[in-house]
Recover the amino acids of this structure.
């Protein structure tokens, strides 16, 4: 049975795990939440580059995945090459879905909703320059929305007033009324997609990278010949620090096929 390790700062990786399960239901998964360093959007690039390759190398040594998915736009746009150099298995990154949004828009105005670091990073600038040079991109970075998604998964009621305020940073732009496509450039945000869609115009198409990441992951598994030959095992969630909200989070983990929780603090 093929084994995929899905890595994020928190439990946003669940949105990518769901897409992988949809594409390949028999795939064994290890979901890693680096909650000890959460949220990545508030970390500097040197901090992330100094931490992630070493942490992922040790996680791979313990869990022996066939493919690693960096299910985090922030980590991917900062440290993907360093991570690939440190690991001996294929690595699939997650980057903002600028290209499909640029192809989809009819008005020439798209929204980009991510973490503060992701929306301003040079990597994102290059994606826009390469794939959306003639598109007006309205950007907003929100660490608050990451926290809101985490709290929702722990069973807390999502505050629509706060969510509407976050989205207003896009819709109140001078060309916000023209926005017809919104890119969710953080894996946490698809976890509140329904609430976002409820507050936006029904004419706005919401796009994220989850389905594309799942396709690339399955392709890498097939290319590596990892579609079979491994014994079945539990689908686990791994946290890098004690998780105080675990009781509230357990229903969401179970709903995503997680069998048990482990802690990894050996780094």
């Amino acid at each position: 049975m093929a084994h995929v390790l899905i890595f994020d700062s928190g439990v946003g990786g669940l949105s990518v795990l769901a897409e992988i399960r949809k594409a390949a239901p028999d795939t064994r998964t290890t979901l890693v939440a680096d909650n000890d360093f959460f949220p990545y959007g508030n970390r500097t690039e040197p901090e992330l580059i100094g931490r992630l390759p070493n942490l992922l190398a040790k996680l791979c040594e313990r869990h022996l995945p066939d493919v690693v998915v960096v299910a985090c736009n922030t980590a991917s746009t900062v440290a993907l090459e360093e991570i690939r150099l440190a690991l001996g298995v294929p690595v699939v990154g997650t980057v903002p879905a600028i290209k499909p949004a640029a192809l989809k828009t009819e008005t020439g105005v798209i929204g980009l909703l991510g973490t503060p670091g992701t929306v301003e990073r040079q990597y994102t600038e290059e994606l826009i320059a390469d794939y959306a040079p003639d598109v007006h991109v309205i950007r907003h970075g929100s660490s608050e929305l990451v926290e809101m998604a985490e709290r929702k998964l722990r069973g807390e009621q999502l505050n629509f007033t706060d969510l509407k305020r976050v989205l207003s940073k896009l819709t109140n732009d001078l060309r916000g009324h023209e926005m017809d496509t919104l890119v969710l450039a953080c894996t946490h945000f698809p976890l509140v997609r329904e609430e976002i869609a409820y507050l936006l115009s029904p004419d706005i198409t919401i796009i994220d990278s989850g389905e594309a990441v799942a396709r690339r992951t399955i392709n890498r598994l097939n290319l590596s010949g990892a579609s079979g030959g491994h014994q079945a095992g539990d689908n686990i969630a791994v946290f890098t620090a004690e998780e105080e909200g675990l009781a509230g989070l357990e229903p969401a983990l179970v709903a995503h096929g997680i069998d048990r929780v482990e802690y990894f603090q050996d780094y």
Summary: The chain is about 45% helix and 15% strand.
